[in-house]
Amino acid sequence: MDVMPLLLLVAGSAAVAAAGRRVPVPPPLLLVAAGLAVSYVPGVPDYTLDPHIVLPLLLPPLLHTAATDSSYLGLRAQIRPVALLSVGYVLFATFVVGCAAYLIVPGLPLTAALVLGAVVAPPDAVAATAVARRVGLPSRITTILQGESLVNDATAITAFRVALAAAVGEGATWAGGIAEFLIAAVGGVGVGLVLMVPLHWLRTHLKEALLQNTLSLLIPFVAYAVAEQVHASGVLAVVVVALYLGHRAWEVDFATRLQEDAVWKMVAFVLESAVFALIGLQLPVVLDGLGEYEGADAAWYAVAVFVVVAVARFVWVYPATFLPRLSAHVRAREGDLSWRGPFVIGWAGMRGVVSLAIAFSIPLTVHGGEPFPERNLILFLTFTTVIGTLVVQGVTLPPLIRLLKFPAHDVQAETLAEANAQAQASRAAEQRLDELLADERNALPAPLADRLRTVLERRRNAVWERLGQANPVTGETVDDTYRRLSREMISAEREVFVRLRDGRYIDDEMLRTLLRRLDLEEAAAYREAA
């Protein structure tokens, strides 16, 4: 097996993503553009998306990291809009896009058109999360978009399987399709509910952070594989388990949390970068198979399908948002709602690699050995829809949000809430310390007991100090000054340790021990001031 193409993909996409952090263009769009440009460079190998790799190997970890970063309580509070988008909208888009494609493309069978509709129906979890993080959407809108993108793949994959069964001649009925969807959904949630408690128990009872994080990396693949093995939704199983683990992450050892956070950030960065680069790299593969549809006809079909996809989302979002508000109970619970939030949700329906992976899983032939009707055209229309939504909607979404002038985050109020929470926690910690020191078994020398109280007091005051003014001389906040002075002190210690090692007063093993101690001190100083 030649690993060089894989290494080039990972290294190249990571380099482009790193460069994207320094320019105003969102990294996902830069990666797609880079993939498109590189795809025709002589000597670049063909990167054909294999659904047997993307769906079971790339999708679970991406869903896992997105779900653990989400809020279970926030999703529960927004369950109605999330359900309407992740289930209702996907089925609506499948039908509308399928019917439109059937009318637009001469000779395209309705069953094959519905396959296309199911393929392009789900907005992508990676794209939605990446853009939401970048543009700083209000928390409610971000929660709805994240919740939708976590669940809608399960709906789309089930709809695709039903439409595909009809297209290849296996026979499919509405009743059978609804039954398959319910089995997949209920089964996926059920598998997640069964797995989440024992997996969490195992995490909390492993004694080493290294073992706990190894388990953490395996969990999304285990949940997905078990669910798919029983013909349930692997997507929903991964999401359920990840939401539970994220909600109870506080029960895990602190060393595990710190290491796990770093590990998953690295995994998400590498996979997201590679996924968006892969989208652009599909251009030669898609165009090579287009055949008779090359030219103006193919371009017209692509534009028409993209417009239908974009308009259909608005057609669903506004009624789904405002019709439930005819109920006085809904109005009282959700308060006033302007047109701006639904508009952003409607425009934020970027498609991604899941749509392409599903499209590439369309078989070459139907029953009887005949070629699958217009398979290459479906691949092309899927590709152009993904690129169109990422480029058009992805580029225009940040300025659109600025134009709509959503209320900015109230930093003062958030800091005040944090300070109040820290004050309550500090009082509880101080009370617990007094109880422990009253026991003669916990006797400490006075300087060490005072040090515990000093650290606690510093942590309590740090948040309140953030409410103060910046230093009038340097312009630094109290946090910045504290962090800078702490790092200068630690840097001086580090230089002495290295000098002692170079003079052979201490060996390298002792140097590593001392440097690790300083690293932990520096991390603690940074977190206290952060």
Q: What is this entry, summarized?
A:
Helices cover about 75% and strands about 0% of the residues. The chain contains 22 helices and no strands.
Shape: globular
Strand content: under 5%
C-alpha-based Rg, rounded:
27 Å
Q: Mind describing the biggest β-sheet?
A: none
Structural commentary:
Helix 7 (125-135) runs antiparallel to helix 8 and helix 9 packs antiparallel against helix 10 (209-229). The chain has 530 residues and is mainly α. The mean pLDDT is 83. The chain contains 22 helices and no strands. 77% of the residues lie in helices and 0% in strands. The radius of gyration is 27 Å and the shape is globular.
Task: Detail the topology: elements first, then pairings.
Blueprint: H1 4-20, H2 27-38, H3 51-68, H4 72-77, H5 79-104, H6 110-120, H7 125-135, H8 139-167, H9 174-205, H10 209-229, H11 234-247, H12 254-281, H13 283-288, H14 296-322, H15 328-334, H16 340-347, H17 353-360, H18 375-404, H19 411-438, H20 446-465, H21 478-502, H22 508-529
